[in-house]
Write a structure and sequence with these properties.
Strand content of chain A: over 45%
Largest sheet of chain A: 6 strands, mixed
Mean pLDDT of chain A: 94
Distance between the termini of chain B: 37 Å
Mean pLDDT of chain B: 93
Number of helices of chain A: 0
Distance between the termini of chain A: 41 Å
Radius of gyration of chain B: 13 Å
Strand content of chain B: over 45%
Shape of chain B: globular
Helix content of chain A: under 10%
Structural class of chain A: mainly beta
Oligomer: heterodimer
Low-confidence stretches of chain B: none
Number of strands of chain A: 12
Order of helices and strands of chain B: EEEEEEEEEEE
Number of helices of chain B: 0
């Protein structure tokens, strides 16, 4: 069975600093995809970044990058130059084949001015 | 292009009552998914439609939940009769292809008293 673990229920970061949100996963499928979503207080789920299990390079999208360490089964999200608007819940998720998305419990990030 | 929309945004009902949630996917997206997040827990998959057919309903908690997608456009999720443990946020997502990025709606917050 697939499983996502996010061990940080809450994180604080100073504005303009970088922050890493942890995510580890478990799957026996060699082909899978890893996703990060952001959920601001307004409630919608916003897709941030995707990493495929066979991708050779770590995914990057603007200030977001995914630190993919396949041997460790980790897919940490790095947010550089944090902004106040980055304060939100962040969910790590994975999917393989036709299986549905499996989510972690989320990490609440608070950016401090 | 309009995103995924959900109605209502909030619903407060009493135990034993019936509630129907609606999801309008992005136009042209054949794949529609329902997820639920109970307070403090992971977002859990409920079911997946491909057009009007149920591709995977393994996540539906019990027979009090009925999902439909007549005509392959919008979908409804009915809870009848609602129980206290049904409280949570119900998300809908859609994608153009089964393995594609899923775009989420803002969710419906359901409170059962």
């Amino acid at each position: 069975a697939q499983k996502i673990t996010q061990t940080q229920p809450g994180m604080f970061v100073q504005e303009k600093e970088a922050v890493t949100l942890d995510c580890t996963y478990d799957t026996s499928d060699p082909s899978y995809g890893l996703f990060w979503y952001k959920q601001p207080s307004s409630g919608e789920m916003i897709f941030l970044i995707y990493q495929g299990s066979y991708d050779q390079q770590n995914a990057t999208e603007g200030r977001y990058s995914l630190n993919f360490q396949k041997a460790r089964k980790s897919a940490n999200l790095v947010i550089s130059a944090s902004q106040l608007g980055d304060s939100a819940m962040y969910f790590c998720a994975m999917r393989s084949g036709n299986t549905p998305l499996v989510f972690g419990k989320g990490t609440r990030l608070s950016v401090i001015a | 292009e309009a995103g995924v929309t959900q109605f209502p945004s909030h619903s407060v009902i009493e135990k034993g009552q019936t509630v129907t949630l609606r999801c309008d996917p992005i136009s042209g997206h054949d794949n529609l998914y329902w997820y639920r997040r109970v307070m403090g827990k992971e977002i859990k998959f409920l079911l997946h439609f491909v057009k009007e057919s149920k591709q995977d309903e393994s996540g539906m908690p019990n027979n009090r939940f009925l999902a439909e997608r007549t005509g392959g456009t919008y979908s409804t999720l009915k809870v009848q009769p609602a129980e206290l443990e049904d409280s949570g946020v119900y998300f809908c997502a859609s994608s153009q292809v089964s393995l594609g990025e899923q775009f989420f709606g803002p969710g419906t917050r359901l409170t059962v008293l």
